[in-house]
Write a structure and sequence with these properties.
- The structure is a single chain.
- The protein is mostly helical and 230 residues long.
- It has a domain of 152 residues.
- It is built from 8 helices and no strands.
- The relative contact order is 0.09.
């Protein structure tokens, strides 16, 4: 048996097979490179990135409707403020009469406290300290006292004029808010005591409405009879 022939035949077959696989591998690699030849192509950017980008807020112009909504919200806030002020003040009048079931002082936010201080000069001038004895309580609600009809009317009108400014429409809104404040104070008082507001509260309401009439030019003045002239 020719061993050399067998060896040569096996070696040659192996060499041909290895050569074929090598060529196929090279072909596959070249095909893959050809397929993805454009993947690493460098393309110069046309954008100039040398300047750092900065955020610039977009200014949005409010529509007439949005402006009006802001004004309405501001007016509602002022109206709520004066309504609460009236309710607190009327409640203090009732405490001095010994007819209130509330014992706590009004809770004020910092914003409200700052505004009242700006209007009146101090919180004590907006809400004068309460008397602690029956004698002092009587003086406080009598003429000249801190919670008399005149003094309370002065404070409420001072606040109304400060919030309304020279705007006649806002002044009317303040008047409406005052009416609602007294109405709510009456409801709260009746719920707690089953009776109407004391006379001093009613007199205070009447005095304030009288002052609003004068301020708004709604007072009835006698018309001059021109027929008697001549």
């Amino acid at each position: 048996m020719d061993v050399t022939g067998i060896k040569n035949t096996g070696i040659q077959s192996y060499q041909r097979e290895a050569s074929t696989q090598k060529n196929q591998g090279k072909t596959n690699t070249e095909s893959a490179e050809a397929k993805y030849s454009g993947a690493d192509t460098f393309i110069k950017s046309t954008e100039d990135n040398t300047e750092p980008e900065t955020y610039k807020p977009i200014k949005k112009k409010l529509s007439p409707k949005e402006v009006q909504e802001l004004k309405d919200a501001e007016n509602d806030s002022k109206a709520d403020l004066i309504k609460k002020f009236i309710q607190d003040t009327i409640d203090n009048q009732n405490k001095l009469l010994g007819k209130s079931t509330e014992n706590s002082q009004p809770e004020l936010s910092k914003t409200t406290s700052d505004l009242l201080t700006k209007i009146f000069g101090s919180l004590d001038k907006a809400y004068p300290p309460m008397s602690t004895t029956p004698e002092d309580a009587e003086k406080a609600i009598s003429k000249g006292g801190a919670y008399s009809v005149e003094a309370v009317s002065d404070r409420i009108m001072t606040m109304a004029k400060a919030l309304a400014g020279d705007d006649k429409d806002k002044l009317q809104q303040m008047r409406d808010a005052v009416e609602k404040g007294f109405a709510q104070a009456g409801i709260d008082f009746k719920r707690a005591t089953t009776s109407d507001l004391p006379q001093i509260c009613k007199d205070t309401h009447d005095e304030i409405m009288k002052r609003f009439d004068e301020l708004q030019g709604k007072t009835d003045t006698p018309k001059e009879d021109n027929s008697k002239k001549n």
